[in-house]
Design a protein that fits this description.
Layout (H helix, E strand, L loop, with lengths): L10 H5 L7 H15 L7 H18 L2 H19 L2 E6 L4 E5 L4 E7 L5 E5 L9 E5 L6 E5 L7
Helix pairs in contact: 2-3
Length: 153
Amino acid sequence: MQACRRGKKTHYQVMGVSPNDTQDQLRKAYLQQAVQIHPDRHADPIVAREQFQKLQEAWETLKTPERRKAYDELLERNEMCARIAVSEHIDLDDMECSWCQARNAHAFRKTCRCGGNYLLWEDEMNETQNQVVVGCELCSLHVLVHYTVTEEE
C-alpha cells in the first residue's frame, strides 16, 4: 500500500461498497461481482481478467477486520496528504534520535527552517505503514517521514 495515491479508485469503489458497510455486506458484494465479472463468464476475458484481479486485490485487503483497519488508516493518511502541503520528504535516519525517560520511548527530531522542531515518537509509527506526516511545533510546515519498522529480537 502506498500513501498519497491520487486518481486511483479505492478498494471500496472497486467493490461498489461504502466504507461504512459491514464485513458481511462487503463479502456479499464481492461474491456478486466475482460471479458477474469472472473471466470464464465474460465476453471479453482479457478485460474481465483485469477487472477480476482488481476485485481480488480489493477483497484480499478488506476481507479481514485487521487488514481493513490498516487500509482505512491508509485512506485517512491519503486524505491528510491531499489537505496538507508537505514541504519535504525525509528519511527517519536523517532525524536525531533520543531516549525520553519520562515517556519511556524514543523521540526523533529534526530542526525546521523556522527554528522549531519536527518531533516524531516511536509509538506514532505503525508496522503496516512506512511513512507519516509530521508538523513543525512552531510553524505550518510539514514533512513526510519515511521509515521501516523492524521487530526487535
